[in-house]
Design goal:
- This protein has one helix and five strands; from the N terminus they run βββββα.
- With about 70 residues, the protein is α+β, with helices and mostly antiparallel strands.
- It has a five-stranded antiparallel sheet with strand order 4-3-2-1-5, covered by helices on one side.
- The protein is globular.
């Protein structure tokens, strides 16, 4: 699969959902929803995030942004 920057994918090695931040060679740089350390995953170990996985990731991002804006 050719991941698109900003899309959500699943690292098939660990079943972790991540947002694609970029690619270098055969590796894809992923960021977990809600923040945390990024990690690299081989492109051939990725699969597109399903509807529920993507929705959960987007809600996590919204909640993180909302808490950052609180005084």
């Amino acid at each position: 699969m050719k991941p698109v920057v900003g899309s959500y994918v699943v690292d098939g090695r660990s079943d972790r959902v991540g947002q694609v931040m970029g690619t270098v060679g055969g590796l894809v740089r992923l960021r977990p929803p809600g923040g945390g350390p990024e990690w690299d995953c081989p492109a051939d170990a990725l699969r597109p995030a399903g509807t529920c996985e993507e929705l959960r990731a987007r809600v996590t991002e919204i909640n993180r942004d909302r808490t950052r804006r609180l005084p």
